[in-house]
């Protein structure tokens, strides 16, 4: 029951965060001068370099956890400066990156810390990591980034894609990567960038090069 | 504009940092004498903070239970494998699973049914029942009894010798 209410709280949290983010990003656009209807009125760059911090409440693929924290970097190459829709200020890029996330595995519900072979070499878990073991994941996301340049200082994006994962003691995995995010232009070519989605939530600085 | 930037940046940072507060939460464990279960998903390994837990795994790919003494554990309908390890006086079962593996101590009772591969290492005075299985391989570390009606049963005693077949379907270490 505890696990179920925690899952609900995660969903509620994610929903609240998204509503907050949407309000945060949309409100200034409504109140100030928008650029969404002026294609090309935005910072011009060919490559976005984005080092970031990671904090995610979500489980890594396949293993229950209490969430994780980490570091990463994302690079995005602009491939369609005019985007998909001619009449609005959008652009499209292809993003790739490397993220390291340290997860605390859920006590008593995590991965197996140690196996021993029983008869016929069948592996039997003899240590379930009850003390709250941990696991380190590496993610390599490959995504399409669709940007909407809403305001002189604000832009938002959606990022569908795939993410390759690997964790210590495990094999290579593949999972969907789906995020939404926003940028706030601090100064010419430098933005604060927040990304919310699965598998990670990131907060960092983008350098529009 | 600078006046607007400061609260917005602060809010963004607050938003992000609030995630860290969430990360301190636990979703509950299996305390000594308690009951816990995993169902659905890919894999799960349940521990027990001591003795006397009642653990269960079902309807997932891979699952395992780890416990001290006087525990019960049931695995059923797993896609790949169930592993169960336990101390003494445990009551274990595994059904409708491809591979069932057990390591348990003395006075252990294990039932393995409707499985392709049952494999166990059990302690003294333990009792194993294999039914509707392709193979049932048991290593006894003392005297034990293995009930096995199917072909593919192989029971080895602590000294490495094969267990005596005391009657059709009954193998014992430590004499009949």
Q: How is this structure best described in words?
A:
The complex is a heterodimer of chains A (209) and B (176). By secondary structure, chain A is mostly beta strands. Chain A has one helix at 2-31, and strands at residues 47-56, 65-80, 90-105, 114-117, 123-127, 134-149, 154-167, 173-187, 190-198, 202-208. The relative contact order of chain A is 0.20. Chain B is mostly beta strands and 176 residues long. Chain B has 1 helix and 13 strands; from the N terminus they run αβββββββββββββ. Chain B has one helix at residues 2-22, and strands at 35-39, 43-46, 54-58, 62-66, 72-76, 81-86, 91-104, 109-122, 126-140, 144-148, 153-156, 164-167, 170-173. In chain B, 43% of the residues are buried.
Low-confidence parts of chain B, pLDDT < 50 over ≥5 residues? 19-29
Give the overall pLDDT of chain B as a whole number. Answer: 85
Instruction: Give helix % range of chain B.
Output: 10-25%
How many β-strands of chain A, per DSSP? 10
Read across the widest sheet of chain A, the strand sequence of neighbours is 1-2-3-6-7-8-9-10
List keywords for this structure.
heterodimer, A: 209 residues, mainly beta, eight-stranded antiparallel β-barrel, two-stranded antiparallel ribbon, 1 helix, 10 strands, 54% strand, elongated, disordered N terminus, B: 176 residues, 13-stranded mixed sheet, 51% strand, globular
Write a brief structural summary.
The complex is a heterodimer of chains A (209) and B (176). Chain A is mainly beta.
Topology record:
The complex is a heterodimer of chains A (209) and B (176).
Chain A: H1 2-31, E1 47-56, E2 65-80, E3 90-105, E4 114-117, E5 123-127, E6 134-149, E7 154-167, E8 173-187, E9 190-198, E10 202-208
Antiparallel strand pairs in A: 1-2, 1-10, 2-3, 3-6, 4-5, 6-7, 7-8, 8-9, 9-10
Chain B: H1 2-22, E1 35-39, E2 43-46, E3 54-58, E4 62-66, E5 72-76, E6 81-86, E7 91-104, E8 109-122, E9 126-140, E10 144-148, E11 153-156, E12 164-167, E13 170-173
Parallel strand pairs in B: 1-3, 2-4, 3-5, 4-6, 5-7, 6-7, 7-8, 8-9, 9-10, 9-11
Antiparallel strand pairs in B: 10-13, 12-13
């Amino acid at each position: 029951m505890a696990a179920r209410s925690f899952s609900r709280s995660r969903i509620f949290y994610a929903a609240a965060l998204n509503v907050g983010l949407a309000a945060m990003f949309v409100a200034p656009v409504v109140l100030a001068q928008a650029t969404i209807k002026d294609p090309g009125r935005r910072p011009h760059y060919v490559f976005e370099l984005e080092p970031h911090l990671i904090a995610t409440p979500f489980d890594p693929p396949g293993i229950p956890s209490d969430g994780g924290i980490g570091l990463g970097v994302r690079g995005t190459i602009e491939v369609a400066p005019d985007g998909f829709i001619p009449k609005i200020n959008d652009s499209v890029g292809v993003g790739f990156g490397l993220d390291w996330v340290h997860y605390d595995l859920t006590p008593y519900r995590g991965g197996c810390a140690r196996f021993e072979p029983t008869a016929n070499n069948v592996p039997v878990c003899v240590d379930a990591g009850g003390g709250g073991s941990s696991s380190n994941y590496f993610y390599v996301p490959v995504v399409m980034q669709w940007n909407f340049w809403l305001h002189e200082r604000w832009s938002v994006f959606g990022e569908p894609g795939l993410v390759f994962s690997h964790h210590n003691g495990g094999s290579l995995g593949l999972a969907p990567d789906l995020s939404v995010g926003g940028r706030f232009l601090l100064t010419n070519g430098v933005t604060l960038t927040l990304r919310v989605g699965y598998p990670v939530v990131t907060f960092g600085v983008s350098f529009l090069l | 504009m600078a006046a607007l930037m400061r609260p917005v940046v602060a809010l963004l940072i607050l938003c992000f940092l609030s995630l860290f507060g969430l990360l301190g939460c636990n979703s509950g464990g299996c305390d000594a004498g308690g009951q816990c279960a995993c169902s659905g998903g890919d894999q799960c390994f349940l521990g027990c903070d001591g003795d006397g837990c009642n653990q269960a795994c079902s309807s997932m790919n891979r699952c395992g239970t780890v416990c001290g003494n006087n525990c019960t554990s049931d695995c059923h309908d797993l896609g790949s494998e169930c592993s169960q390890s336990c101390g003494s006086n445990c009551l274990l079962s595994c059904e409708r699973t491809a591979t069932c593996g057990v390591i348990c101590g003395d006075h252990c009772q294990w039932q393995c049914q409707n499985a392709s591969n049952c494999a166990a290492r059990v302690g003294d005075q333990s009792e194993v029942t294999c039914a509707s299985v392709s193979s049932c391989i048991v290593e006894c570390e003392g005297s034990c009894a293995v009930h096995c009606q199917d072909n593919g049963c192989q029971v080895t005693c602590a000294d490495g010798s094969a267990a005596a077949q005391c009657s059709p379907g009954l193998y014992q270490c430590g004499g009949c």
